[in-house]
Amino acid sequence: MNFRLSEEHEMIRKMVRDFAENEVAPTAAERDEEERFDMEIFKKMAELGLTGIPWPEEYGGIGSDYLAYCIAVEELSRVCASTGVTLSAHTSLACWPLFKFGTEEQKQTYLRPLAEGSKIGAYGLTEPGSGSDAGGMKSTARLDGDNYILNGSKIFITNGGIADIYIVFALTNPNDNRSTTAFIIEKDFEGFAVGKKEKKLGIRSSPTTEIIFEDCKVPVKNVLGEVGQGFKIAMMTLDGGRNGIAAQAVGIAQGALDAAIAYAKERKQFGKPIVENQGISFKLADMATSIEASRLLTYQAAWLESAGLPYGKESAMSKLMAGDTAMKVTIEAVQIFGGYGYTKDYPVERYMRDAKITQIYEGTQEIQRLVISRMLTK
Ligand code: CAA
């Protein structure tokens, strides 16, 4: 057993940290305020190879692994959780199912430009009436000659409106929820539209939208995997996606802790830095301990996936632990900053708002417990 990162992983961390601090952090507060996605940042991530970390070079990737990908999401989220989730949804939710279930032609047509970062990916599972109960979807796909005709809508789509390629799920038999099928949708397909953009508490520079299918024409060759295999594809995709969210949560928490330590050392009250009070220093100790535990779970799940071992339970555990840690740590960071922490002059209120979503998306904390307990008892 070796808890040290390899030289390659350390190099990736250093590269992403430099990029995050120099190119992402300076505009994070402003993009949050303006709810603005910055395409230039995505393009720079593509130049650095970050958009295709775990995929082989033959599919446009850099041939690294899921641990390197998690480190990248963590480091981006340490300064800007929106940028972290843009990469996470792109990699885990769009590229992963293409890599795992795509035909060679689908990989060359769709995975390659996504991994190279000339295109952005998204994933559409949730519907207005089906969130935690993902199997309760209503969107349909009717076979008509060489096409499927999709009708319905999906909500809460990360990268909605900025994505070029969407992996979506619909019922090929409207009366049978076992007929869920996965489809690859291009944004220019006839009958596809981007709907309402959500106004959100956090991750405000990551666009979240509705997507709508009105007799949307999807060629049969854009079925991903087998017809009727869609629910399993959706679930397997989330198994890995959840660990990307855990990495995002670890990054948010670390960013908040770093800010809190710096502030506690500098802020003087009653004639001494506030860090000299045990009430503050013990908070910092607890925050750091929870973050380290979350990071270890997250890296373990990423390592398991890279090694080809089962990782679904561990990934649900890492998101459960890291999401709760991010929430707890960011609340404490605001507390350490006191009144200043409640203002937009410091980043900790943004971290606190951003942390909340890690307890909700890619399966609420309650769903993680369901997934973990089912795996423990099956
Ligand atoms: N891998 C492979 N197969 C799986 C699986 C997995 N992880 N999970 C379930 N399945 C299979 C089951 O084995 C079962 O197959 P059989 O019928 O052949 O036995 C089938 O799928 C149905 O499984 P369940 O009976 O367990 O299904 P369920 O209806 O009880 O639901 C659930 C299970 C875990 C609650 C699921 O609905 C779920 O994960 N809900 C949460 C949805 C979610 O995470 N949404 C997030 C949306 S995406 C998002 O947030 C993205 C973003 O933008 C960032």
Describe the protein in words:
This protein is an alpha+beta fold and 378 residues long. The chain has 10 helices and 10 strands. The strands form 3 sheets. It has a 4-stranded mixed β-sheet. Strands 2-3-7-6 form a 4-stranded antiparallel β-sheet, covered by helices on one side. β2 and β3 form a beta hairpin. α3 packs across α6 and α4 runs antiparallel to α6 (230-266). The two termini are 28 Å apart. Bound molecules: acetoacetyl-coenzyme A (CAA). Acetoacetyl-coenzyme A binds next to α4, β3, α6 and α10.
| Oligomeric state as shown | single chain
Overall spatial form: globular
Q: Structural class of the helix and strand makeup?
A: alpha+beta
Largest sheet: 4 strands, mixed
| Tally of contiguous helical segments | 10
What order do the strands of the largest sheet run in, or round the barrel if closed?
1-4-5-8
Record keyword descriptors for this entry.
378 residues, alpha+beta, 4-stranded mixed β-sheet, 4-stranded antiparallel β-sheet, 10 strands, globular, binds acetoacetyl-coenzyme A
Break the fold down into its secondary structure elements and pairings.
Layout: H1 7-34, H2 39-47, H3 66-79, H4 81-101, H5 104-116, E1 121-124, E2 140-144, E3 147-158, E4 165-171, E5 180-186, E6 192-197, E7 208-219, E8 223-224, H6 230-266, E9 268-269, E10 272-273, H7 278-306, H8 312-337, H9 348-357, H10 365-377
Parallel strand pairs: 1-4
Antiparallel strand pairs: 2-3, 3-7, 4-5, 5-8, 6-7, 9-10
The structure holds acetoacetyl-coenzyme A.
Residues 89, 93, 123, 125-126, 132-135, 156, 158, 231-232, 235-236, 238-239, 312, 361-363, 367, 370-371 line the site of acetoacetyl-coenzyme A.
GO molecular function, one term: acyl-CoA dehydrogenase activity
Domain Acyl-CoA dehydrogenase/oxidase C-terminal: 228-375
Protein name: Acyl-CoA dehydrogenase
